[in-house]
Amino acid sequence: MLEKVARITMLYDFYGQLLTDRQRDFVEFYYGQNLSLGEIAGEFNVTRQSVHDTLKRAEQLLAHYEEKLGLVARYRAEREKLVAAAGLLDECSSTVEDDRVQRVKEILYEFLETGD
């Protein structure tokens, strides 16, 4: 379940603005705030089934957007390359005494920290 939550959250970060207001609200409450279907239904004065159906449709749309656009896959691939580059710099910095290498490492790590 945690893997699904992480996947939906990542997809939502990239494509959430393409959902309807109601779909966004339900995804935020269910995945972001960990509310139950019943709690969301009570908040919006709808049935649990309506919340469930809306969430399933939103999940399908998010997956469809990723399938067509591939932004999350591209983000992950680029991030892996940056992590590899940072690792190589770590190896180099132990043998090279150059402030520029240290500064490049700092920039990479700043970027990697803001990407989470």
Under CATH at level 1, the class of the largest domain stands as Mainly Alpha
Distance between the termini: 20 Å
**What is the correct CATH architecture of the largest domain?**
Orthogonal Bundle
Annotation field: number of helices:
6
Most strands sheet = none
Strand and helix order = HHHHHH
Number of domains: 2
**Any idea what the radius of gyration is?**
20 Å
What structural class do the secondary elements suggest? mainly alpha
CATH homologous superfamily grouping of the largest domain: Winged helix-like DNA-binding domain superfamily/Winged helix DNA-binding domain
Number of strands: 0
Beta-strand fraction estimate: under 5%
Shape: elongated
The mean pLDDT is 91
Q: Could you provide a short overview of the structure?
A:
With 116 residues, the protein is mostly helical.
Commentary on this structure:
The chain is mainly α and 116 residues long. The model has no long low-confidence stretch (mean pLDDT 91). The longest helix is centred in the C-terminal third of the chain and has 23 residues, at 71-93. It has 2 domains: 2-69, Arc Repressor Mutant, subunit A; 73-114. The chain is elongated. Helices cover 82% and strands 0% of the residues. The two termini are 20 Å apart.
